[in-house]
Amino acid sequence: MSKPTLGIIGGGQLGSMLATAAKRLEIKTVVFSDDMDAPAQKFSDEFIFGKYDDQNKIDKLVSKTDVITFEFENIPYETLNQINKIKPVLPKPSINRIIQHRLAEKDFINKLNIRTTRYASVKNKSEMDTVQDLLPGLLKTVTLGYDGKGQHLINSIEDINELDIDFSRGYILEKLVKLKKEISIIITRFSDKKYEIYEPIENVHEDQILKNSRIPADINDKILKQSRLWAMKLTEELKYVGTLCVEFFIDRNENLYVNEIAPRVHNSGHLTINAYNISQFENHVRAVCGLEQIKLNKISNAKMINLIGSQINVYRNKQFNSNEFFFDYLKKEIKHKRKMGHLTTLF
Ligand code: AIR
Fold first, then answer.
1. What pairing do the DSSP bridges indicate for beta strands 6-9 and 67-70?
2. Across residues 292-317, what is the average pLDDT?
3. Which of 71, 162, 264, 312 could join 14 in a cystine, given CB atoms 3.0 to 4.6 angstroms apart?
4. How far apart (Å, rounded) are the C-alpha atoms in residues 80 and 20?
5. What pTM was computed for the model?
6. Over 90: is that where the pLDDT of 189 sits?
7. Considering only CA atoms, which residue is closest to atom 14 of ligand 1?
8. What letter would DSSP give residue 163?
9. Multiple choice CATH, 118-175, 1.20.120.1810, 3.30.1490.20, 3.30.460.80, 3.30.300.30
10. Of all atoms in ligand 1, which is nearest to the CA of residue 267?
């Protein structure tokens, strides 16, 4: 059987790394992005530039590919659903629809008896008065936003008056936990109860952007088992196909909470490229393209640092040791808080 051609919607660094993994498996890729300068076009076989609701461009993508995935959860549901009627979109668009919506996502998680932080929907300013027991909390738009975009830290009700918030967008208020540390689990589901799961990754954020990740995570055995179990349960319940990331909080009393689910490959899993026999990207391509599932094998401990904004400049001219792996996302413009590259060090 000939190998399928993979469509990737979204053209950022995650798309680049998916296309690179696909190439090694001799899978052709077509990237579709609304950014003319999308870096993933440098790694894919073909590139389609267009708005995500441009019917001609959608038709073009569908005609050139056999299976379609996405690297960014903010792709319009309508686009994914429409494509899925003609060619399979994996993971299923219905999954993305739940996870795109922070309230639906949290309701789904809690229904499975999996703990999240306490939260409430906030539709207008006066509703803030009724949810004061969730303060201090994070006020987030229910849809869109990543890397802290569209999020406000609210310590007291007075903070609201100082912010210019357009409540018509719909908000969720999430109570802050007394955070000890954050971890994530990357898992790839192939089919019923068939998974490859990576060990928990310990993450440090700064300004709501991932700063660094490392394995092994310094966590106790109970947290290790619980986080793995919850990641498997969530993935199975969603009948997910592909790589997914579950982000967790651990509080000062060693309680575990699911923070959020990313229905895609994830920044905290970049170290899997060098630290495992099969990366999160290769596993995603294997799962969505129906290729063989290979048992994961850890090669090394690892730490990854994100290079944000102008930090990339120093690394572009640096010499690296043989245990260091530098990735430049080749983004056209350096912007404040923009993820520009990363460095993984094996140890
Ligand atoms: N991304 C998606 N969700 C979270 C992140 N970090 C990646 C995807 C997306 C890219 O970030 O690869 O395409 C967008 O990056 P930027 O810098 O253009 O906003």
1. parallel
2. 97
3. 71
4. 23
5. 0.96
6. yes
7. 12
8. S
9. 3.30.1490.20
10. 6
Is 233 near ligand 1, meaning CB less than 6 Å away?
no
Ligand 1 atom closest to the Cα of residue 146 is 4
| 6-89, CATH topology level | Rossmann fold (3.40.50)
Residue nearest to atom 2 of ligand 1 (CA): 72
Q: CA 184 from chain center: how many Å?
A: 10
Atom 1 of ligand 1: nearest residue by CA position: 72
> 33: Cβ below 6 Å to ligand 1?
no
Tell how far the Cα of 190 is from the centroid of ligand 1, in angstroms: 25
Give the pLDDT band of residue 1 (cuts 50, 70, 90).
Answer: low
Q: What is the mean pLDDT of the chain?
A: 95
How many other C-beta atoms can be found within 10 angstroms of the C-beta atom of residue 151?
A: 15
Rounded Cα gap, residues 29 and 194, in angstroms? 25
List, in sequence order, the alpha helices (H) in 200-331.
221-237, 272-275, 280-288, 311-316
Q: Which of 29, 47, 146 to mutate to test the pocket of ligand 1 (most atoms within 8 A of CB)?
A: 146
Question: What tokens does 339 get?
Answer: 């993820």
Ligand 1 pocket check for 14: Cβ under 6 Å: yes
Q: Provide the 10 A C-beta neighbour count for residue 277.
A: 12
